[in-house]
Amino acid sequence: MGAQLDELLKRGMTQLAAFIPWQAAESDIAHTLTRFLQAAAERKLNVYLILSPEVGIHYPLSGLPKDVMRKKENSAQHGHQGPVNMMLPPQHFQLPSLFSPDVTKRYYSYLSKMDGYFHDLSQSQPQLMAHVSIVLSGSLWKYYRSPLGSSPHTFGDRAGDYSNHASVAFRQRLEQYFAQKEFQEPTAASANRWKSRSLEDLNRKWFYQHSEDVFKTRSYQTLRRKSSKLKLLEVELFTPEADPGLTYASFLQLMSGHQHLLPQYSSLLDEYSKRISMGALPTLPWVHWSGLKDFRNLPEAEKQFLFMKSILLMGGQTGAVLLDATEWLSFSSSFRSKAEALARSISEKNLKLKTQAFYLAPHLWSNYGPVWMELTRKLGSGVKLTHSMDLIHRAPSARLIIVDPSLMIQRETILKLMAWVRGGRVVVLPRSQFYTEQAKKELDHHLQGTQKMEMNLQFSYHLHRVGEGKLITYELPDSWSLKPESISSWQSFLESIISLAELEKFCQFTSPQLEAIPLEIEPDRVALFVLNSHPQPVSGDLVFSRQVKVSDLAGALLNQRPRKVESSPVDPAEVFTLDVPPHGIVPLMVEELEVKIAEARLAAHSSSLREGDQVQGTV
Amino acid sequence: MELNYDWKCFQFFFISKRKPQNTDLALGSRADGEGSPIYVLMQGNQIIVALSHGESLVSWSGATFDELEARFPNREMILFDREKVDQWLSQSSEGEHYYDQILYLCTEARPQFTARSKTKSFGLAFQKNFLLKLLKSRWSVFFPVSYGILVCLDGDYSRSIFLRIHRSRIQSFVKPDFSTMIPERRKVFTDLVRHLAESELIPVQGVFVSSENWNEWSAIENPWEKISLALRRDRTQLSPFRWGVVFLIFIRAKFKLFNRPS
Questions:
Q1: Scanning A96, A271, A353, B94, which has its CA 20 to 30 A from the CA of A523?
Q2: CB contact at 8 A, A310 and A270
Q3: How high is the pLDDT of residue B121?
Q4: What pLDDT digit, counting tens, does each position of B155-213 carry?
């Protein structure tokens, strides 16, 4: 073990992430783990120990306990009533249901055991834990999707576990949840309306999110029982090779022996980076390229592209990328240097993926149709989907919230939204049938006496001025599900909202094959990465809505004299021509953007919200 | 923590990385005449996923098969029905390990062909290696019911894999554990093989080869002549040296016998 770690250290690796296979931990790995931590501590390596059940672990059944997995009744079922097949080496298996009492009891008892182990180790050999962080991940919840619904669009279908265990838990939770006083108004019988079968899809969404949150919180608390001083991170760990959306593509690839999964992987990264969640703490997005399956066989240029894109998207949100050591060493030394320099710049210069708008939805992994799709198309990486108002409060740069029509609106939701909108922001709220009586009253109370304007752009809506912000309410069509045929109406509606919120995509391209990842350094300085995922070189114009100055990013970050990008790049312009090589990423520094005074005001308002009368809990 | 199925080690020895061509056949592009087969997974007439060698067919998801066929009238189409694929995938999880499971898929998957069929076998990437093909070939009648194969590269015991085979099926694949051996003995091929035979209680055939030769043989369809030559020139060693094995390799190299799978 020591020799292997020495080899890694010699090759410049100082951060190690290791999965603890639950199966192995149950049969006692204290001795092996202590030896590993000892060897790592002697070499001053930073170790991240991932404890949650995850896929993509190089261990039988991905480390899940064999006896639990053998029982068919413990398997999860996706929305099309089939098992969730996990097609990753060292063996295919069906995902267990995290609603099965067999699974959860065993899991929490394993966590308690690990808690005891870390506590004892911290007492007896504290130096071993000095460089160790314990990682709890979002676990298997995001994989409860059918390959059929996830194939064309990653999160293109109703997500969640539909097994018997999940259904029982759902029914129980429904009864408890709607026993709250708020749902029993005006009469006790009103609660039955919420429990009707026609609302099952809607109820399942919040139920899955709620169950996932409970799972995360309980895992966190279990590990805090004895070892309260442990460094603990909460992350959402994405393993693209395990995504149900790629099950069928992987099958065809196996049959054909051909390899062409780059577009799918690239789009998975985009989708992952747009969904942010909250556990006991805000969760950090991590991507894990296990190298167990298709990633290993990708051509070198494609692997490098995906790895760099992962660094940009996850690093820009203070996340991380996990890569198998063999895969990392298989990259050329010049590529490794570039990747390290990029990661270091993101971390040291605090480069951030700026969030402009939020889509507030009841469940992170479900499908949200044309409004969400259109919003991401219009704002690119500047838009995020979340279930948590607390997370929104932590993003001072955000100026717009669009509330999904399937979100159940309670009084608390209205209070949080109103507190947020007052700071000069925009909230779009559907007038749906999913308001409680108290929520309706609360909203009416806030809107009383406000300036109101009726707008009609193929779609009628009301604009209210609330404090310095704007609240837009609109009546949903008869059927709340948004039909694709009405997409043009939604497009016009969204366009007007985006312009009302004074938002825009950071830049545009004349070639649809190019994409941009802007990472903010300061409000007027942005590191812009232009990506070409295609195997051919792509030329196109990079278009800004106002004059900017563009220079070479590497030079600018190191405070060197910028190299020329075009014939006279230092002259501010609105349009720049770029040639991006196949699978290439062009880093640029974009300066002298208009600094919005409103942003500073929003930031001030956000911090006052956090310090002062912040409303706790998630929506 | 012992891994009975060390997939990373297995990949390293048996699955070579491929270099695909890159062309783009996006929706709306011009139809071509000849080309590699297009693999399509469908539900009814609707395409769920389509794939072809080095081509991006992502934009065809959601389109109908009729549209695809109209666009590429001369291409061989290999179609899989979604429900059947789900069934095969679920059944494959009964297998013990990934290699077993993909062999099951490659055997069971029965596609439809729309144009004159040329493609006959599937999952070739995993069956390309000469040693894996050998285990499934008619040669297996000459082998014991249970045995082990140790492949060691460049005389370095840390770069080796041990396959345990039972009735022509790979039962496990691991990086062998020689930690209980005296360090000096780990350099002696016969001792490595003896150690495994004693600990596993099965006959073990050791193959000691340079990584250069191994990679070269793994990349070609029929390397037996090269293997035979390497044995004669002592560039590759068998331990223990069995005349029967050498004879079979020689026969296979010279007469190309038993090449078909059993």
A1: A271
A2: no
A3: 61
A4: 888 899 999 999 888 989 999 988 888 888 888 888 999 999 998 899 999 999 999 99
Q: Provide the token pair at A105.
A: 């009891």
| Test the A interface: residue of B6, B40, B58, B159 with most A CBs within 10 Å | B58
Chain centre distance of CA A608: 26
Count CB neighbours of B184 within 10 A. 8
Average pLDDT over residues A441-449: 91
Q: Which residue is closest to B81 within chain A, CA to CA?
A: A248
Chain B neighbors of A582, CB-CB under 8 A: 22
Q: Would you tell me which residues 76-95 of chain B have a C-beta closer than 8 angstroms to some C-beta of chain A?
A: 78, 80, 82, 85-86, 89-90, 92-93, 95
pLDDT band (50, 70, 90) for residue A475: confident
Tokens encoding A267: 């789009």
CA B214 to chain centre: 14
* Rounded Cα gap, residues A608 and A195, in angstroms: 38
Q: What domains appear along chain A, each with residue ranges and CATH number?
A: 2-348 (3.20.20), 357-500 (3.40.50), 508-598 (2.60.40.1180)
Q: What one-letter code names the amino acid at B190?
A: T
Q: Beta-carbon neighbour count of residue A455 at 10 Å?
A: 14
CA A115/CA B57 separation, integer angstroms: 49
Is the model more confident about A570 or about A163? A163
- Strand, helix or coil at A277? coil
CB < 8 Å to B85, chain A: 248, 251
Sign of the dihedral defined by the CA atoms of residues A360, A363, A369, A373, in that order: positive
Using the predicted structure, report yes or no on whether residue A308 has a pLDDT greater than 90: yes
What backbone phi and psi angles, to 5 degrees, belong to A217? Answer: -65, -45
Burial bucket for residue A13 (CB in 10 Å: 0-12, 13-18, 19+): middle
Q: Mean of the pLDDT values across residues A390-409?
A: 93
Share of chain A above pLDDT 70, in %: 91
CA distances from A232 to A48, A64, A227, A236, A490 (A): 9, 22, 10, 13, 43
In chain B, residues 16-55 whose CB comes closer than 8 Å to chain A: 17-20, 22-24, 36-37, 39-41, 43, 48-55
Residue with tokens 């590699």: B36
Least confident span in A299-313, A392-406, A484-498 = A484-498
| DSSP β-ladder status, A585-591 and A525-532 | antiparallel
> What residues of B are in contact with residue A87 (Cβ under 8 Å)?
89
pLDDT of residue A567: 45
**Mean model confidence pLDDT for chain B:** 82
Residue numbers in B near A21 (CB within 8 A): 1
Structure letter (DSSP) for residue A167? H
B112 Cα to chain A: minimum distance (Å): 13
β partners of residue A531: A515, A585
pTM for this structure? 0.89
Interface confidence: ipTM more than 0.90:
no
Pairwise CB contact (< 8 Å): A256 & B15: no
- Looking up tokens 């991507």 gives A287
A102 vs A100: CA distance, rounded Å? 5
β-pair partners for B46: B43, B64
Going by C-alpha positions, the residue among B20, B50, B23 that lies closest to residue B37 is: B50
A559-563: Cβ within 8 A, 24+ apart:
A562/A589
Single-letter residue type at B8: K
Question: Running DSSP on this structure, what letter comes out for residue A241?
Answer: G
CA–CA–CA angle A483, A486, A487 (5° rounding): 95
Query: In which element (H, E) is residue A590 found?
Result: strand A585-591
Other Cβ atoms less than 10 A from the Cβ of A176: the count is: 8
A615 pLDDT above the threshold of 50? no
User: Does A257 contact B18 at a Cβ distance shorter than 8 Å?
Assistant: yes
Nearest by CB to A92, from B19, B48, B92: name it: B92
